[in-house]
């Protein structure tokens, strides 16, 4: 136990250092300095760790919450940068490999599709909430795994949607409309979907996550499936954690939980089904 506590303390100290360094950056837009620092930060999250961020003290919790905010801003700027770069090219899909962590998006979409396929037939309609300016998740699922499925993408930022709708082949874009909306404003629309994906950065705190899941549970159709991106171990310094208890309280039954292993960089995710009340 003492060794574990020492390891957690060392990890908190390391991420406190990252937080301090990132906070001093004049801009979070992609640059050699920003890219190098965030590459180092992500690498520090990959090894398995005994840390449970819910048990950290108030000072560490405050640092972690601000680090998540900074990472969210940087991720949005990174996606916007690469979205603009790709759509300036004649064939954007031929150049997707330029994006950092491209392989991780490929692997994540395959894992999520495989888990879904184990619990349901191919969905007719899917919603992706928090699609962002570079909607790789829905793009890869629509292109490589679910060629007959309609993907409705929701983001609260109209500028992000404007960028996103330019990415992808024309036949795929025809099945991927984009809507500008806050998740809290989606009600009757949610009942039309067989699957709803909830992006990792929709809801930046545990309370916001819980409220979002409760809202989805209230309006999704009985039997529909929720795929919620989460975080585990040291990755929880970069992304909010979805608590399984909140999934249950939201009216869902957990079907599967996947935590990345080895050198996988992507998020954890939870697959759950709306229970008829």
UniProtKB/TrEMBL annotation:
Which example biological process does GO assign this protein?
nicotianamine biosynthetic process
Q: Which reaction does it catalyse?
A: 3 S-adenosyl-L-methionine = nicotianamine + 3 S-methyl-5'-thioadenosine + 3 H(+)
Question: Where does this protein come from, organism-wise?
Answer: Triticum monococcum subsp. monococcum
**Its biological purpose:** Synthesizes nicotianamine, a polyamine which serves as a sensor for the physiological iron status within the plant, and/or might be involved in the transport of iron.
The GO molecular function terms of this record are: nicotianamine synthase activity
Q: Which UniProt keywords apply?
A: S-adenosyl-L-methionine, Transferase
The family annotation for this protein states:
Belongs to the nicotianamine synthase (NAS)-like family.
Is Transport one of the keywords UniProt gives this record?
no
Q: What is its EC number?
A: 2.5.1.43
Determine the domain of life of the protein's source. Eukaryota
Tell me what this protein is called. Answer: Nicotianamine synthase
